[in-house]
Specification:
Elements (H helix, E strand, L loop, with lengths): L2 H49 L3 H29 L1 H21 L3 H15 L2 H12 L5 H12 L1 H5 L2 H10 L1 H22 L29 H8 L5 H9 L1 H20 L3 H29 L3 H20 L7 H15 L2 H10 L6 H30 L4 E2 L2 E2 L3 H23 L11
């Protein structure tokens, strides 16, 4: 074997191993975003009592970091394409850590809002950053599968924000819990700085890198107004955008903000037991995300699995809104929570959909445009759901927290069903394309 051949073999072996370590370090940052996305579900009543919040006020705090997601998606996508995954990982991690610590020390609801905004500022580009890294280090035919596994692992952060967070809050208080999580996030951010590299050729020749340059997306970093206009004027991006707008936003409304309160207020069960239902929803999502990606890559279709999954999510909301008498058996709610998680995993498919109908070279910007749907939906639904609850409130307060009646929740579930139905209809209009080809 020639010297170059030996060198190539060495880099091949190193790169194929190290890319998984780098990828996983970026996934840890998305775990942090998942944690913060749903943490308010556990501490909702505690914050309501401590800061004397209304339902709309709590919904506004929950959506605060979502507002930053909406504002930062397009600028964030541009920054990812310009700066690369390594530096973005450090910046996003430090921003989220600062926000978590601010929440822990917050003397008023305004500081909680500020903390959530900082978390949103950092978290807004974490997923975009992961997809940028995948475009450089993994083959195009692996994109949906890797995206599914990325969301599978990172969603464990949501599980940390369910029962384990409830236990930690009961043992140490919500302030200490947020401060501790912020300090851990700082460690993750610097680990990413030391381990992550933007592309296989960053520190050595691409020929010897061991990565097939024809199989990965060697993306340009030149971003200008014309490129932005070309990407964002692509009407084919509307369908994956609408899939995200109506699917995952509803999932977060239930599993991330109001689900625990709904079960505690309507069914009279404890917070820790109610959090177990959220775990069921996230387990469904964790199963659905990699399965959706792998099945989609295997059968060569994005549309078919997306239609099935979004239909499951819509079924969840229809059942909660239209069940005779309103009170479903608790065992059935467990089952429906799993279906909600499975159905919401359809968002995994929105990103390869968008990539396949867009010009190559701008993964960050394309992902940001589609991902905007997720957070715009959350920014609309979370406070609106709280507003609906406030309108139906009958004046009952227990331990400083408002207790909302079943009828108010059911009206909110009708609204979330409408959003899910919008996603379902949009998916039916998606024009299927072959993997790697433009639709």
């Amino acid at each position: 074997m020639t010297a170059l051949g030996n060198k190539g073999y060495l880099y091949n072996s190193v790169n194929l191993k190290i890319r998984w370590i780098m990828w996983f370090s970026l996934i840890l940052l998305h775990l942090v975003t998942s944690f913060h996305r749903v943490s308010f579900n556990v501490v909702a009543d505690l914050l309501t009592a401590e800061f004397n919040l209304t339902g709309a006020g709590l919904g506004n705090l929950a959506a605060a970091y979502t507002y930053m997601y909406v504002l930062m998606q397009i600028p964030g996508g541009i920054l990812v394409d310009r700066l690369g995954p390594r530096r973005i990982a450090l910046l996003t991690g430090l921003a989220m850590a600062s926000g978590s610590i601010v929440i822990g020390f917050a003397p008023s609801a305004d500081f909680v809002f500020l903390g959530r905004m900082l978390i949103g500022f950092g978290g807004s580009v974490v997923l975009i950053n992961i997809f940028k890294f995948q475009a450089s280090w993994f083959r195009a035919a692996e994109f949906a599968t890797m995206s599914g596994f990325a969301l599978l692992i990172s969603t464990s952060g949501a599980l940390l924000a369910a029962t384990p967070l409830a236990v930690a809050v009961n043992a140490y208080g919500w302030r200490t819990s947020f401060i501790a999580f912020g300090l851990m996030t700082i460690v993750v951010a610097f680990f990413c700085l030391f381990i992550v590299r933007n592309s296989p050729g960053e520190n050595q020749d691409n020929i010897a890198s061991g990565i097939d340059n024809d199989s990965v997306q060697n993306e340009p970093i030149k971003i200008n107004l014309q490129a932005i206009k070309t990407v964002l004027s692509n009407r084919k991006l509307w369908i994956p955008f609408l899939i995200n707008l109506g699917t995952y936003s509803g999932f977060v409304v239930f599993a991330g903000t109001w689900g625990v309160s709904y079960l505690v207020h309507v069914y009279g069960i404890g917070i820790e037991r109610a959090s177990g239902f959220m775990v069921a929803a996230y387990i469904g999502y964790m199963v659905g995300a990699p399965s959706a990606g792998a099945i989609s890559d295997r059968i060569g279709s994005r549309k078919t699995p997306a239609v099935v999954l979004i239909g499951l999510a819509a079924l969840f909301w229809l059942a909660l809104a239209a069940w005779p008498g309103g009170l479903l058996p608790l065992w059935l709610i467990y089952v429906l929570c799993v279906l909600l998680g499975l159905g919401s995993a359809a968002t995994v498919l929105s990103f390869p959909m968008a990539r396949e109908v867009s010009i190559p070279g701008y993964t960050g910007l394309v992902t940001a445009a589609v991902n905007l749907g997720v957070f715009l939906g959350m920014a609309i639904l979370q406070p609106f759901f709280g507003y609906i609850l406030d309108q139906g409130w009958q004046g009952l307060i227990i331990d400083g927290a408002r207790i909302y009646p079943l009828e108010a929740y059911r009206i909110g579930f009708i609204v979330t069903f409408i959003f899910a139905a919008l996603s379902f209809v949009a998916t039916l209009f998606y024009r299927e394309s072959r993997m790697g080809e433009k639709a």
